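Q: I'm teaching a short session on how sequence maps to structure, and I want students to see two examples side by side rather than one. Could you give me a first protein with its sequence written out and its structure tokens following it? Keep the formatting plain so it prints cleanly on a handout.
A: Of course. Example one:
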Amino acid sequence: SSTYEKIGLTEVVLQYGSGDAWGDWIQESVCLSTTSACDGLFCNQVCVNNMNMLGINGQSAGLQGLVSDGLMGLSPVTIGDHRPDLFIPRAYDQGVIDEKVFSLNFAGDYEVSYITIGGYDAEEFAVEDVTWHDNVGRYFWAVNLDEVRYGEGPNEKVYTGEDFKTQAVVD
């Protein structure tokens, strides 16, 4: 593309899950948009200019099963290397989105999953008022829990009370 610029001199290795990917530090304009029929407020293309990221040249066997066109990190903060930009804060800083939020709709077998950048559709996601929770994770999305309950009948386990303090990672 006409906006592509290689900004690093050496190849970089990124460890992700069970494998590695390697490539060059680049700066590029990135646009996310839907390819399916869409109507409503959150169907607009979201573009970020001069985004620093890793342009992937190859990957190890541990990532060969990953079927995708790319990997978009949605961490609340930069972890480790501070050279790559985070898409959502960059879009917010450039005035492309009004809020630093995203929402995910994980569809069933015969529906289309999608992500909304910069907001959420309350009519789509909420059957009642939305309850907001602070992110308590430093490097990932996490919330505090007041209670954990699992099992049924005599096998039911409930963890709660003043001494119960735990978090759930939302990933």
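Q: Perfect. Now a second example for contrast.
A: Example two:
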Amino acid sequence: RRRDGGRQAMTTVFIDAGTITLELGRLLLARADLRIYTNSVPLLHEHGERAAQLTAVGGEVREVSQALVGALALSWLRQLRFDIVALGASGLDPAEGASTTELGEATVKQTLIERGRRVLLLTDTSKWNRPAPICFAPWSQINDWVTDQSLARSELTALRKAADLARSEGQ
């Protein structure tokens, strides 16, 4: 509560389906100041102490990733806004950005990027330079990339150039 008696706005966070994003989601569930939306079936099954409000977006379950996708998920996502969107990816291309293996997931991720103020990409470095078939976001649409290891200096330089080029072409 604010001192003026009004309610303090909760931060809205979207947690994407995926193993690394699941770990972030587990940590954030303890925060009472968050309203968490997700398409991650495993995150919805977390039964620990939950202080955050947790909401499923609905949709069809994609068995491989345990992600909720499809028309119902997209319909809900288009009505919501997020302060922070935390996305996973199946692959990363140094020039093109983040990618995934399935069109339904790519469409959900693209919609989330449109609806989020800040976009975090959470991956491990094993996905670097191993793009999946469907690119869902150029580097210019990602605000922060969180990973388990630093890239080599030459790779970081190439990534910065690709992100700067993508941003300048988008203007």
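Q: What should students look for in example two?
A: Point them to this: The chain has a mean pLDDT of 89. Also worth mentioning: The longest strand covers residues 116-122.
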